[in-house]
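Re: How this chain folds, sequence and tokenised backbone to follow
Notation: Tokens come from a learned vocabulary of local backbone shapes, not from coordinates.
Start of record: The labelled sequence and token lines come straight after this line.
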Amino acid sequence: MKYYIPAISLFSSVSLLWGTDYSFLNEETFVTQKSLWHFESDYSKVGGAKITNSNVSGSKLHYSEGNASMYFSHFLNNENALAWQVGANYVDIDWDQNPRFTGNNYLYGITSLSWISNSIEKWRWIINGGLSLDTNTWNFGKSAVYYTTLWGRYQQRSNLGLHMGFFAYYGALNGYVLPILGLDWWPSCKWEIKAVFPIDASINYHFTKHFTTSILTTSMGGPYRFPRRAHDGIDSFEDGIFKIYSTTVEWNLKFAEKDCFSLGAGGGWDFGGWMQISDSHNHHKKYYNFNGAPYGRIFGTLTF
């Protein structure tokens, strides 16, 4: 029990700082020579969250997002592989009193290429490059967001891994760089703790070989401050830019059959957040804050 108390304290103190399940950040532990194809998907929904800005106070935001990706692994040798990703990201912003744009549904195509290497003893390195593009316009100049990742994991001990690197993106007149830093730790054969900023903050209990229950934090809206072009802008906000972000805490249950199949569901509470909206030149920015609301998620993977 002495192992878990400091870990839970660490989790609770930092969990609101980051999230997990980005379409753009994947540890790619599924890359094995045994199974070259991997599919994963998830869908999340936040119930009606009250907007707190005075001019639209009382209106509610219903937000949902989903992701689906297919990966193909191509091994160069036993220690180096390429992973090709093709996928989609779906965002639904249901806010009928939005004063700056009226478009609700957004579908983005995602593609990336990763190099995964175990050539250096005790290290796993991932170098990734990709892009996200609004499929409503297919306008690379306006809506494409390009991203890259450098991510290393060092096997410090048999039950402890240390992570370092960075994630960066640029597009839609915005750019951001986030460090990757943290650890994963197995204090016993059933308990797994992950604290890898900004990707994964979770406490996992593997109570059978098939079932795992987890408490984790997730972020809504994609990577922090990730920009998107708005549809159906009002007046000067035609082709405007919006960013949305909130943090949730979730409890879930997952069933997994070896390394070939998994399915899970969870729920919890979204602590509220903000949506920033600017015009097409990224000027006249305004934040719209929203309160907390119930939250739910389903997810699954298939590897073959």
Remarks:
- Confidence is low (pLDDT under 50) at residues 1-17.
- The first helix runs from residue 4 to 14.
